[in-house]
Write a structure and sequence with these properties.
The protein is 31% helix and 22% strand. The chain folds into two domains: 182 residues, P-loop containing nucleotide triphosphate hydrolases (Rossmann fold, 3-Layer(aba) Sandwich), CATH 3.40.50.300; 68 residues, no CATH class. It has ten helices and twelve strands. It is elongated, with a radius of gyration of 49 Å. The strands form three sheets. A six-stranded mixed β-sheet has the order 6-7-8-3-9-10, sandwiched between helices. Helix 3 packs across helix 4, helix 3 runs parallel beside helix 5 and helix 4 crosses helix 5. The relative contact order is 0.13.
């Protein structure tokens, strides 16, 4: 059968290149997002596509799909120029419309079998078998008859990944498939994708916001920053010197409890020296000089007599004096 030939081809892909970018520049709305990208993604690898918001992760995935044509350079997927609908690629976009209330998991996949036609198609036996196969690969067969609106985030993600497997792709592109999931369902989704790589020989390129979530499954990491890209092992790429050069700013890589965090280096705060308080000197009390009493100097240098009470002369003294004058 055709799908068996594809499966054998997938398992032999480990010796070839799944995707190659040669001097590629990608632009959106006239703004260059990625420039001068040269890299080759080996087949059969699980590659984590990482970088800050706005670094170009979604743009790179759309370039591999052929939806965004390179402003410069060339993108090939398994040796063929990337073009819309080129085949061989399964894609899970980041933003998806909300499910119709009555739509079941099986119905979602059925719509994807003949996406150019309106309404639920009348499926052949082979098409139904293909849907069953895809749901089984993601452990979602029990969810086929349930309404999408009733599924949890993790259950709905398994159905959506099954949808991306229709057509037996060789390259699986996933744009933020862990967004909105709790830690348990994030770990389950990463384990599911790693199992698809191992069982089906798929090449998985999965964008994520946090490295530590996908770290257990990664073969390589493709890190975007500052309009550039770097592909390599986690040990080679996720280091402070490499990421600092990629971002053009000092970065720190913190490893704790089996997790890896990439954060900008925070410069040490320069604390200005507090001005010394200037305590004004207390004004000295000005004691006015007390003027000394001016005592007028007596004539002749004699000390002035101290005025005192004047005693009247005794009458006897006057009489004797007078008598002496008469005797004379």
């Amino acid at each position: 059968m055709r799908w068996r030939r594809r499966l054998r081809a997938n398992r032999n892909d480990r010796a070839v290149t799944a995707a190659r970018l040669e001097a590629v520049s990608l632009a959106i709305g006239g703004r260059t997002v990625l420039s001068g990208i040269d890299l080759a993604i080996p087949a059969g690898r699980f590659v984590g596509l990482l970088g800050p918001n706005g670094a170009g992760k979604t743009t790179l995935l759309r370039g591999l799909l052929g939806v965004v044509a390179p402003a410069a350079g060339r993108i090939t997927v398994f040796g063929e120029i990337a073009r819309p609908g080129g085949g061989g690629i399964g894609y899970l976009p980041q933003t998806r419309p909300g499910p119709l209330p009555q739509l079941r998991g099986f119905d979602l996949l059925a719509l994807s079998m003949r996406g150019a036609r309106w309404g639920l198609p009348h499926l052949s036996g082979a098409e139904r078998a293909e849907i069953d196969w895809a749901l089984t690969q993601t452990d979602a067969a029990a969810l086929a008859g349930r309404r999408l609106a009733s599924l949890s985030g993790g259950e709905r993600q398994r159905v959506l990944i099954a949808q991306a497997l229709l057509g037996r792709p060789r390259l699986l592109l996933l744009d933020e498939p862990l967004a909105g999931l709790d830690p348990r369902h994030q770990a389950e989704t990463v384990a599911l994708l790693a199992g698809l790589r191992d069982r089906l020989g798929l090449t998985v390129l999965c964008s994520a916001h946090d490295l530590d979530v996908v770290l257990p499954a990664l073969d390589q990491v493709l890190y975007l920053g500052g309009g550039r890209a770097l592909l390599g092992s986690v040990a080679d790429v996720v280091t402070a010197p490499v990421l600092s050069a990629l971002y053009g700013a000092p970065m720190q890589v913190i490893r704790a409890g089996g997790r890896v965090f990439v954060v900008p280096e925070v410069p040490q705060a320069v604390v200005p020296e507090a001005p010394r308080a200037v305590v004004p000197a207390a004004p000295q009390a000005v004691v006015p000089d007390v003027p000394q009493a001016l005592v007028p100097e007596a004539p002749g240098g004699a000390a002035p007599a101290t005025p005192g009470a004047r005693m009247p002369e005794a009458p006897g003294a006057v009489a004797s004096d007078a008598a002496g004058q008469q005797a004379a």
